[in-house]
């Protein structure tokens, strides 16, 4: 099999395409032929060593494909099944990967393989944020950072469908058009602001009658955190779910008091798809939305497996609007 391995923590120069021995499933495992692998910021964090792990390591936590072989005690899946996963694999940047049987979900025929690979991690994240972390309710004002990104586009659609007025932030007019098409009522351009920390909350409050938003969904991190906190209304909630601009320094809890008794959480999607019943419930809901055209999954770029470094550079350079896939 071929796979992309990070030789050590670092930049994209540590990624190598290698020929490795074909794996064989053990108890509780399934061998899958990878047909599409998602590229996510968590892969960047793994590559950089921000999240712990042994090196060299095959990157990639998300993908879709067909079952090639099952372990001796696996009865959840059969050879030939179309499946998708987010987590539980030995690395999705590969032609073949072992996945824990409990982490695999069936892909309905109405959902294409690329879409299944693209919607798993970002879709589950968006669904968990809008329905589990801070459930969006009709009439609420919510702010979604990076509204034209993979999670941002999906989260905007889900929040708008639940009756919220969605405000988003983007970095260009082209991204603003995408965000509006996804259901954003108001789009704020980063590049039209001076001091983000002071001017963004001012814009948000001017759009919400001075009150601020009920919820901020922030996957950007360091660059937006202070503005996010200041944009909340009294007893609002900030869900910090990513760090595309860098990790947020430690926070004094008294800041939450001064901001209006607001709530701060740093959720992990894995806690919202455990146990397996929760995973199946959320993926079934996502696939049903996709199948009936209620959720558009935008795949903006497909890279050959050998070009994983270029895919990472595109993601980190904010050159993407939607999902990036690797195609083995």
Key features?
Rossmann fold; 16 strands; single chain; 30% helix; alpha/beta; seven-stranded mixed sheet; Quinone Oxidoreductase, Chain A, domain 1; six-stranded parallel sheet; globular; 328 residues
Q: How does this structure look, described?
A:
This protein has 328 residues and is α/β, with parallel strands linked by helices. The protein has two domains: 173 residues, Quinone Oxidoreductase, Chain A, domain 1 (Alpha-Beta Complex); 129 residues, NAD(P)-binding Rossmann-like Domain (Rossmann fold). Helices cover 30% and strands 27% of the residues. It contains nine helices and 16 strands. The strands form three sheets. Strands 3, 5, 6, 7, 8, 15 and 16 form a seven-stranded mixed beta sheet that branches. Strands 11-10-9-12-13-14 form a six-stranded parallel beta sheet, with helices on both faces. It is globular, with a radius of gyration of 20 Å.
Fold topology:
Blueprint: E1 2-6, E2 15-19, E3 29-39, H1 41-48, E4 57-58, E5 62-70, E6 82-86, E7 96-100, E8 105-106, H2 113-133, E9 141-144, H3 150-161, E10 165-170, H4 173-181, E11 186-189, H5 196-207, E12 213-218, H6 225-230, E13 232-240, H7 254-258, E14 263-265, H8 276-291, E15 299-304, H9 308-316, E16 323-327
Parallel strand pairs: 9-10, 9-12, 10-11, 12-13, 13-14, 15-16
Antiparallel strand pairs: 1-2, 1-4, 3-5, 3-7, 3-16, 5-6, 6-8
Helix pairs in contact: 2-3, 2-8
């Amino acid at each position: 099999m071929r796979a992309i391995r990070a030789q050590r923590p670092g930049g994209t120069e540590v990624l190598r395409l290698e020929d490795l021995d074909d794996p064989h499933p053990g108890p509780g495992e399934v061998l899958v032929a990878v047909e599409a692998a998602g590229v996510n910021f968590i892969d960047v964090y793994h590559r950089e060593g921000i999240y712990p792990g042994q090196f060299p390591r095959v990157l990639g936590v998300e993908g879709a494909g067909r079952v090639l072989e099952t372990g001796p005690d696996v009865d959840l899946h059969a050879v030939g099944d179309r499946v998708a996963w987010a987590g539980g694999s030995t690395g999705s940047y590969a032609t073949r990967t072992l996945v824990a049987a409990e982490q695999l979900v069936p892909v309905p025929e109405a959902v294409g393989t690329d879409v299944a690979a693209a919607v798993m991690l970002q879709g589950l994240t968006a669904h968990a944020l809008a329905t589990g972390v801070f459930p969006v309710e009709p009439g609420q004002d919510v702010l979604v950072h990076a509204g034209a990104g993979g999670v941002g586009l999906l989260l905007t659609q889900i929040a708008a469908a639940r009756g919220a007025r969605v405000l988003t932030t983007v970095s260009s007019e082209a991204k603003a058009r995408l965000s509006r098409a996804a259901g954003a009522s108001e789009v704020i351009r980063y590049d039209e602001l001076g001091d983000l920390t002071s001017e963004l909350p001012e814009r948000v409050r001017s759009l919400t009658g001075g009150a601020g938003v009920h919820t901020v969904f922030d996957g950007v991190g360091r660059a937006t955190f202070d503005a996010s906190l200041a944009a909340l209304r009294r007893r609002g909630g900030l869900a910090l779910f990513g760090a595309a601009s860098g990790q947020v320094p430690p926070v004094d809890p008294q800041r939450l008091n001064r901001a209006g008794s607001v709530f701060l959480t740093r959720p992990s999607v894995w806690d919202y798809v455990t146990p397996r019943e929760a995973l199946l419930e959320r993926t079934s809901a996502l696939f049903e939305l996709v199948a009936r055209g209620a959720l558009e999954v935008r795949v903006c770029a497909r890279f050959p497996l050998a070009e994983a470094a270029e895919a990472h550079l595109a993601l980190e350079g904010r050159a993407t609007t939607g999902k990036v896939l690797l195609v083995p």
